[in-house]
């Protein structure tokens, strides 16, 4: 009996010692595949678990007439290690979040204002396209190309949730036209014509 009680107390103590409730990211540490190192628990406050950065509209005065405001581990260290994060999308009339992928996460999008037309393309190249109204949600499976377009005449807002604290974001046109990969190689590897490639490199800041 006594030994049972001793064993149970040992179990409770050892659990207390090993269970980690959270790992608020220490943004000064390097970010590896498992995220940032943990900030010392003694230094953690309630402020680490809240973030006000999504309360304001992003600036949509840009080429895409859209803005993505992330609340990933880098901006919101409280989600570090928890396998979740979020972001805010703002789309002015005519705006688009261009074709992109999140290599590290599934995504759920919730429309909170306006109307958004969105689609993803499966690895079998099938298109799954929906027009979403306020309150509608849509899921985008990990790694698949997708986009969001403002489908109403008014500003649209959506919040997105990711299944990673660091989902990543790669925009297709930036990958193709915003770097120094030579036009001839972009043409060879995409079948696009060089005039179009040079035009988009000019617009997106690419060279060569
Ligand atoms: C939005 O971005 C544009 C272009 O960079 C800039 O001119 C403008 O001042 C910004 N607006 C706000 C409210 O920051």
Compose a concise summary of this entry.
The protein is an alpha+beta fold.
Kindly describe this structure.
There is one protein chain. This protein is 20% helix and 27% strand. With 208 residues, it is of the alpha+beta class. Among the domains are: 61-168, Jelly Rolls; 173-204, no CATH class. The strands form two sheets. A five-stranded antiparallel sheet has the order 1-2-9-4-7, with no helix packed on it. It has a five-stranded antiparallel sheet with strand order 6-5-8-3-10. The longest helix is centred in the N-terminal third of the chain and has 17 residues, at 2-18. 2-acetamido-2-deoxy-beta-D-glucopyranose binds next to loops. It holds the Pfam family Cupin_1.
Chain-wise SSE layout:
Layout: H1 2-18, E1 66-71, E2 85-91, E3 96-101, E4 107-113, E5 116-121, E6 127-132, E7 137-140, E8 145-150, E9 156-162, E10 170-171, H2 172-177, H3 183-190, H4 194-204
Antiparallel strand pairs: 1-2, 2-9, 3-8, 3-10, 4-7, 4-9, 5-6, 5-8
Bound molecules: 2-acetamido-2-deoxy-beta-D-glucopyranose.
Key structural traits:
Jelly Rolls, 20% helix, five-stranded antiparallel sheet, 208 residues, binds 2-acetamido-2-deoxy-beta-D-glucopyranose, alpha+beta
Reported for the largest beta sheet, the result is: 5 strands, antiparallel
Q: Please give the alpha-carbon distance between the first and last residues.
A: 78 Å
Question: In percent, how much strand structure appears in the residues?
Answer: 25-35%
Helix/strand/pairing category:
alpha+beta
| The first-level CATH class name of the domain at 61-168 | Mainly Beta
Radius of gyration: 22 Å
- Ligands, ions, cofactors: 2-acetamido-2-deoxy-beta-D-glucopyranose
Q: Write the CATH fold name of the domain at 61-168.
A: Jelly Rolls
Principal-axes geometry comes out as globular
Strand line-up across the major sheet: 1-2-9-4-7
Helix content: 10-25%
Supply the number of helical segments. Answer: 4
Could you give the count of β-strands?
Answer: 10
Give the SSE order as H and E letters.
HEEEEEEEEEEHHH
Mean pLDDT, all residues: 91
In CATH, what is the homologous superfamily of the domain at 61-168? Jelly Rolls
The appropriate CATH architecture of the domain at 61-168 is Sandwich
Disulfide bonds: 23-38
Organism: Kalanchoe fedtschenkoi
Subcellular location: Secreted, Extracellular space, Apoplast
Binding site for Mn(2+): 100, 102, 107, 146
């Amino acid at each position: 009996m006594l030994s049972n009680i001793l064993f149970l107390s040992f179990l409770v103590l050892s659990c207390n010692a090993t269970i980690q409730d959270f790992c608020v990211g220490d943004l000064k540490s390097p970010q590896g595949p498992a995220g940032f190192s943990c900030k010392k628990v003694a230094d953690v406050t309630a402020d680490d678990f809240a973030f006000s950065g999504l309360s304001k509209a992003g600036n949509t005065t840009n080429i895409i007439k859209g803005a993505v405001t992330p609340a990933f581990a880098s901006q919101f260290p409280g989600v570090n290690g928890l396998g979740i994060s979020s972001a805010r999308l703002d789309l002015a009339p005519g705006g688009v979040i261009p074709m992109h992928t999140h290599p590290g996460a599934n995504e759920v999008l919730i429309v909170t204002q306006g109307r958004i037309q969105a689609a993803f393309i499966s690895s079998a190249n099938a298109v799954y396209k929906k027009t979403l109204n306020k309150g509608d949600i849509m899921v985008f499976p990990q790694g698949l190309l997708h986009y969001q377009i403002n489908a109403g005449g008014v500003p649209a807002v959506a919040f997105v949730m990711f299944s990673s604290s660091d989902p990543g974001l790669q925009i297709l046109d930036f990958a193709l036209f915003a770097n120094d990969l030579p036009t001839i190689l972009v043409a060879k590897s995409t079948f696009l014509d060089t005039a179009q490639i040079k035009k988009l490199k000019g617009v997106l800041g690419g060279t060569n």
